[in-house]
Q: What sequence folds into this?
């Protein structure tokens, strides 16, 4: 009987211990995607997010849409997207790079999700208004509609 042992050695890279400045200055797509896992303080988080988006804009000239979407998705797993902050950063970037701002927004999963959720909420509201109007047109009393859709009577009367 013969026993064979294998010995593997791996290089360990501790992303959290790496200084983010080293990666911000890189034009490496993986560095951009993993920037959120680098060592930075809570106070530096906004700057890191802005620099990630700036790096992302540079990568757009070299990578196809699929790779860009993958990088943005990986980064969104690690960044904690803050809608107000991201919108503010995007406005800053649009001021500096007006031709690139819309392209960034198209690839941002968190922003797409927010837009989707807003669209669903708006659609629900519009659908509810349409249902209320139809019920009123079919002879239901405003009081009955108010009770059925759980809205105050004065809101129902506004739709009449």
A:
């Amino acid at each position: 009987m013969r026993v064979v042992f294998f010995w593997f050695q791996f290089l360990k890279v501790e992303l959290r211990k790496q200084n983010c400045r080293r990666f911000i200055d890189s034009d490496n797509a993986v560095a951009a995607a993993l920037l959120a896992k680098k060592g930075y303080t809570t106070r530096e988080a906004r700057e890191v997010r802005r620099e990630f988006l700036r790096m992302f804009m540079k990568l757009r000239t070299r990578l196809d849409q699929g790779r860009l979407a993958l990088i943005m998705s990986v980064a969104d797993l690690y960044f904690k997207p803050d809608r107000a902050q991201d919108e503010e950063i995007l406005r800053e970037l649009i001021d500096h790079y007006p031709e690139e701002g819309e392209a960034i927004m198209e690839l941002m999963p968190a922003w797409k999700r927010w837009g989707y959720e807003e669209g669903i909420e708006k659609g629900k509201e519009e659908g509810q208004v349409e249902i209320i109007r139809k019920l009123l047109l079919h002879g239901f009393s405003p009081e009955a509609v108010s009770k059925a859709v759980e809205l105050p009577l004065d809101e129902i009367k506004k739709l009449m």
Summary: The chain has nine helices and no strands. The CA atoms of residues 36 and 48 lie 7 Å apart.
